[in-house]
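stage 2 :: seqdesign
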């Protein structure tokens, strides 16, 4: 699975790890995350992420 990087602060969303601290289970593809998702580091919206 591709990882997604916040264009603002560089935080990386790894679908294999998910983001359990923010309610996203491991194995959740980026495309399946809610549209109102924000970066846990800087608060940028989902549209501010780029696939790596």
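stage 2 :: out
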């Amino acid at each position: 699975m591709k990882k997604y990087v916040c264009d603002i602060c560089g935080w990386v969303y790894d679908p294999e790890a998910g983001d359990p601290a923010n309610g996203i289970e491991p194995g959740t593809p980026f495309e399946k995350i809610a549209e109102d998702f924000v970066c846990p580091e800087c608060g940028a919206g989902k549209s501010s992420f780029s696939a790596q």
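stage 3 :: structure notes
- The mean pLDDT is 97.
- The two ends are 10 Å apart (CA to CA).
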